[in-house]
Amino acid sequence: MPSPGRCLKFLVTFLLIILTTKFAECQNYVFAQMGGVPLNTSGWNLQGAATIASVTSNNNSELLLCPNVLNMSGAAFYNQPINLSLCNKWIAEFDFRMYDGTGADGIAFCFLDVPPVGFVLGGGLGIPNTANGLKVCFDTWNNCIPFNPFTVHQDMPKIEIRWGIGYNSSSGGNFTVGECLPGPTRDNSDGKISFIRSTNYNRAKITYDSGNIQVFVNDTLYLTGYQQFNFTGYLGFTASTGGYDDNHTIKNVIIYTQMPPSFAGSNVSFCPNDTVQLGGPSNPSYTYAWSPSAGLNDSSLSSPRLHLSNNTGDSLWYTYYIRTSFNDRLGCASVDSVRVKVFPKPDVNFITPEICLTDAIAQFYDSSYTRDVNTLPFSYQWNFGDPNAVPGNPNNSVQQNPAHHYSAASIYRVSLAVTNSQGCIDSTYKIFTVNGAVPKADFAVLDTTSLCSNQPVQITNVSSVDFGSIVRLQIYWGDTASVSYTDSMPYPGKIYTHNYPNPVTSGNASYTIRMISSSGITCDNEMDRQIVIQPGPHVQFNSIPAVCTYDLPFDITEATELTNIPGSFSFYGRGISSSGLFDPRLAGSGTDTLMYKYTGADGCTDSTVQAITVLAPPVVSAGNDTSIVVNQPLQLHAVSSDGNEDSFLWSPVTGLNDPASADPVAILSSNIDSVRYFVKATDTAGCYGVASIEVKIFNTLPDIFVPNAFTPGKNINNIFRPIPVGISSLQYFRVYNRWGQLVYSTSRMGEGWDGTLAGKPQESDSYVWMVQGTTYTGKVITRKGTMTLIR
Fold first, then answer.
1. What is the pTM of this model?
2. How confident is the model over 286-308, as a mean pLDDT?
3. Which domains occur in the chain, in start order?
4. Which terminus, N or C, of the chain has the lesser number of Cβ atoms within 10 Å?
């Protein structure tokens, strides 16, 4: 019987094993790492001067946070955050070294609410003044004690635990923000931490447990502190030099957190629709969540079954993630992933031969493929579906392109199963016919009574065979020696079309059509049939000159039939009769298409079209009627809607210096009271337009006459306007009431006041008017006066 002491020792040992196992189960989850040769910084964000380097070795296994250069800073932070309000334990272990220069600042391990930006250059271990969170500082320069130039670096190192915002401020030499405030600090007053700055690497270990903070260096506990952090933040390093210099390097970084470990399992590859297992053993204290959930039987299991299809020709890759959380703290979770590859099935297909009973063998050809060359080569399993197969002519084959002899004309079910190099299999089958050996070629000509040389001839397939189907047709149309058309996919009733030569002739043409019908390789039959092609008419429609809308109707003579075969014709289109009489007035302006169709006595027809353009005449303006004085030069001005492209002609020529100009000058004598000039504008196509202007001649000097009264609303004298004589332009004509209000104004000759203001009739009263105009010789005439409005 064991002694009580031995039982107690066993119980203690058992409890220790349980506690250690529980601690290892959750605490030893590796959250982040930075190590290897060369250094692997995957998942870390390097900022500032931080870079992979070889400081103490030549294998790039160290992270140089900042080099031995004055006023340099650098940082490296893991890009995944951790929520300390849920995951309240972590351990950070790393090797650090600060040496090679004159000694400056140091390295800080931080837990910050955001990754730092805007580094402090020089002092402050590279910690920005706005950085909020935990800072564990390994500082080679103690700014909180008096500086002694004779003992530099002998009693300067210190280890600190700081939290809050920032670390220090170098403004005016005041280091009261963080660094020198009360807080857990281990200085070098006893000379026992001089090794902090050393040519050798030191191993640091920092633990956080629900606010309890411990700092170990080389397995010796040097500092403790307490401060809880309940926000989501980022773990990482900062460093700086300052007024002195050192290389600041780290390596062999590993961070453990108290997270339940996630295990997604090893990467797997499988065939479509197979079922594989992901993940690993389950723990009742954990909650599992897989994403995506597609193909999983249950995304909340630790080891779900996965079933996926792949209907493509490529291998498909998927990444599945498992998130493992504590049941009582679902936000404290770790994530692992597994890569899944689903191979494609072979895309199975094959080519069947077209044979008849007398053909020796049926040769089959595999056409299966895949786009993933890693799944090649294929293996094959054929079944020919032949109930008459014998050992010397087996019903199965493993060749890629096998051959088989069939002894009866019949329908067979041929199948092929293909397996790729990864074991994925797929299959297909085809219905295969061994046709009879007695085909019969035959065809029918469509519309035999209207075979015209300018129309296609059509025949329809009516070939047959004693069993199965016709597999190939060959047609000789008879118009080109030894030239044929072959159809490898014929079927009963299929129509074939051919265009024969279409000469300009009035005689018939005969052709012999030959059809060869085959039911296999050696089984065929042929048939000949003669057809007669009637001549088709040949019509020609030459271009038609443009016409004007006012032109009289005329016959279209540009259309003709060239072969002189008997028949009749007809015209179609806007503005034209069936006999060809075209009326531009009915058609209207624009471009239209006319059709000419000729029908021969044999029923064959031909038609063609031609465009005709009907032009609208130009719109001409000669200006407003005007008045001039005797022997005063009058500048006439004609304008056409065609611009300057038209030619002009004025009539009568009385007093005109150039009747063929658009802008002639008229000088008229006293023996004429008035004259109306007409101007004709003719465009390049010969269409013309006409306008006119009346000129009255006064035996007086140029002036502007204004009546002294008017009666708005009456039949006569109802518009108050100036009467310009010998005036080429009007600068203004204005009317004011007795209070000086402007009631009317214009600069256009011929216009006047209707006695209203803003649509409201004005009262009977006296009104003041003012007018100014310019004569044809350039003289300015100004007049003013009064008039009476009478209602």
1. 0.52
2. 96
3. 25-257 (2.60.120.200), 268-342 (2.60.40), 350-435 (2.60.40.10), 439-533 (2.60.40.10), 539-615 (2.60.40.60), 620-698 (2.60.40.10), 703-789 (2.60.40.1220)
4. N
